Every structure is written in structure tokens, then in C-alpha cells.
Amino acid sequence: MYYASTASSKAGTLSPTMNMQPYTEDQNDALQEVVNIAMGQAGDSLARILGNFVALSVPRIRLVTVKDVIKTVTEMVDAKAEISAVRQAFANSLRGEAIVVFAQAGADDLADLMGYDTELDQSAEQELLLEVGNLLVGAVINGISDTLETDLSFSAPSLMAERTPLERVLVPEQLSWTHALLMEVNFTVEGRDFKCHLLMFMTEEAIDTLRGILDEFLEGI
Q1: Is residue 174 part of a domain?
Q2: pTM higher than the cut 0.90
Q3: Domain limits at 174?
């Protein structure tokens, strides 16, 4: 029920200036494949609950600095546009957080896509955003965990922002990391206003841990 673009995309390598060993080409390729699978599962889950064809971009993977995070994300999301966002942390073998950013027009379209024939109040709208955000994050985390055969868990979703400009949501001074591995994809529904973006940040420690997990994965192929 969903479509994933077939354009090529490579995971970003770690810059030597960050005092971290770059991923090898094999590690990059493996990570891209794992993320493609996980994001595809998320797209399929979204298509099933919306009952509509869902298109998703090629998942993009790269290293970002805390100073660059706004610029990086606004390549997919208009910084001036109002958005709503759901946030969840994940932990165990890898640590980080996932954020699902809903373009406001898409958030407004969500109730209709979900089959509601009456206007929702604010509380019901919030619950709907939390439900869809949790569905997407859960599908991605479980997909990564299953493919890499590693233990991952995630927290309950929380509403990070509602009808707020993106530039006021991801504030560098409020983020607790210096560098992070960013994995991102956008989902759209053909013929509708719905659009959302899933962002996963893995912190410096997880970047190094992931290297070993990818090596074990490659050895098992």
C-alpha cells in the first residue's frame, strides 16, 4: 500500500574532525539497508491505518551537529510553517530520540483520513497525533531491532509542539548532544494534504555502539 522511491542514497560518513572513526563503506551500506526496511515498515503501517496509498522518500542518513540541525531538518520541513510534533525516546542497546513532525495542513487532514466525520476538539486531535506518531516510531524501532537482532525499547509518546513554527521547536540550546546521526524520511498521501516527517537522532555514544552492531550484522549475512 505504500511506495518507496528507488533513487540511490548513501549513509553519511563521520567527519574526521569530530574525532570519530568514519563508518566503512560496508557499514554505511548495511545501515542504509536496515533503515530502508524499517522506514518501509512504518510506511506500510501508516497506509494500513489511513486506508490510503502512502509515498515515502528515500530514507536519508547523515551526521549533523547541534548547530546545523535546524538547517538540516528545514530541507524537508519549511522552518516558517506551523507544525505539530510528537517525541519519543528509545534506549537499551542504542540510545536516542525520534520526532514525528506533522505539517499543520497534514495534521488537520488526519482526522478525515482516519474516518472521523465530525470536527475534533483539541484533546481528540492531540490523541490522534500521539497515536500516529507512536505507530510510526514503533514500526521503525521494531524494524531496526528485528533486523539487527538487538534490544531496543521506546518511551510513551509526548506532544512536543502543537501549531508552532519549526524554528521554535528544534532549538539547539535545548538539545543535549553535540553531534548526532540523523535518519529521516518523509511520508505523504497522494491527493491529500497529509505530510509528516520522521526524524531519528542517535547520540555520539550510540554512533560508536552502532558500529559494533553493524559489524555483527554483516558477519551474520
Answers
A1: yes
A2: no
A3: 24-219
